[in-house]
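Input set for joint prediction.
Command: fold jointly, output tokens.
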Amino acid sequence: MLRFRLLSFSLSPISSSSSPVFKPHTRNRFLFLKKLSSQMGSYTTASDSQLSGSKKLLFRQLFEKDSSTYTYLLADASHPDKPALLVDPVDKTADRDLSLVKELGLKLIYAINTHVHADHVTGTGLIKSKVPGVKSIISKASNAQADLLIEPGDKVYFGDLFLEVRATPGHTLGCVTYVTGDGPNQPQPRMVFTGDALLIRGCGRTDFQGGSSETLYKSVHTQIFTLPKDTLVYPAHDYKGFTVSTVGEEMKYNPRLTKDEAGFKGIMENLNLAYPKMMDVAVPANMLCGLQDVESKAN
Amino acid sequence: MLRFRLLSFSLSPISSSSSPVFKPHTRNRFLFLKKLSSQMGSYTTASDSQLSGSKKLLFRQLFEKDSSTYTYLLADASHPDKPALLVDPVDKTADRDLSLVKELGLKLIYAINTHVHADHVTGTGLIKSKVPGVKSIISKASNAQADLLIEPGDKVYFGDLFLEVRATPGHTLGCVTYVTGDGPNQPQPRMVFTGDALLIRGCGRTDFQGGSSETLYKSVHTQIFTLPKDTLVYPAHDYKGFTVSTVGEEMKYNPRLTKDEAGFKGIMENLNLAYPKMMDVAVPANMLCGLQDVESKAN
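tokens >
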């Protein structure tokens, strides 16, 4: 059974607007259901809500060239405070991202990672140091440090929009995938931020950081390929210049994940990839939410 | 007064499906208006048509890393033949683009350039050699060779969707900008493919190929900044990892185009840029629709 937990950032004038609230499980299930119910009352037809849903979401895909990393900016543009979050920010491009957030008049509340990256240093530490009040998020299963440790079934709210957390281990043991909500006021088609679990026509390697090809195969097939086929796939990396795919496309054309499990394992065991260049720098830094935290602790 | 011309690719079973028809002016004005009228009859409300419009368009942004070029794939996914076009394809990534076209079940009919590029060789020649029937398009003002030479006010149809041609010289003398239609069955918000005339928070250089900072300033202000503010801006390049902007954003934050004309000219005259590395290879090739054409003529 799915567990519902709510990561809500209170934006009412009474409570502090710089302290995201991580509510305990039982109460949040109630809050989540109540929230959904009140949203549903605002719309009468499916097509109207789809249109409204997509108009509410302000979305930007951003690229960091050295590590070919995609960072995603999402905001609820219909909310008075325009609360926003960044998925997989990179330290090198943190200033670019923050400048964009400012120009668009957004209030950044979360800096989120899909997993402990081995190829770049996360921007979360730097962002937190530059924008007080921003909370870092990573999965509890990653064993990394962050302000909020999320678990499968959790919902990360930004305004009236939310990302649902799905466990997709296999590239690392703590990988999660974030999916936009399936409520009537959420973006249509849905969008899935897959980290390195599923790349466009590929997937992340499985030979480090608790990786397992068997686990990754199950993760993608049970947690991502079960989404509607028109769900837009936004990965953490692309090395060929693709920006987006769909679940249906990857189910049909992903050269690795379309194989059976044995075939997939065979491919992953014979990739013969070099040791990740940035790994020995990036992983220790990312376990602490970015190199900036490591440095500040050392001083 | 706007001139209406129609670039229509006949997809009826009677006529040849591999010969785009470039109709003369007078007749096409009639055809264009007739086409629009029949589309309008299908929809009853603004919100419905907006939703349908965006659902009809299959859109992909593709990146070529060496020259930081964006190629755009657009198709009418609701049309039985899924007619498609590529804007600013690059020779190096032509195979990637054609593979995607095939996987998505599209029928590529046009390979279009915004201008004669100086930093990469266009993919149009290679694409034409690999996919018989595809027609290359460039502006008449560019003085380059292509199957179809378009002029301001022309409309390039792919299925029931179209791109409108706007003259935006200044980076080169033949630069054009393509804008998705403003009809009721066209994508909302509109999308503008600006080539190098307007980049995200920047613009193309004006010191080669008949460039003129004065002309570019007028082009952007009269042809692009007059579009609705929510129009999505898709440039031919980005060097900082941005993928999209809006007209409203550029009107507010573009560090060059927000200046007055004298200020803009001053900036452009003092960029002190190096001679374009690829220019002596790319421009002669692109004047003939891609190096492949040059090679085949030489053999």
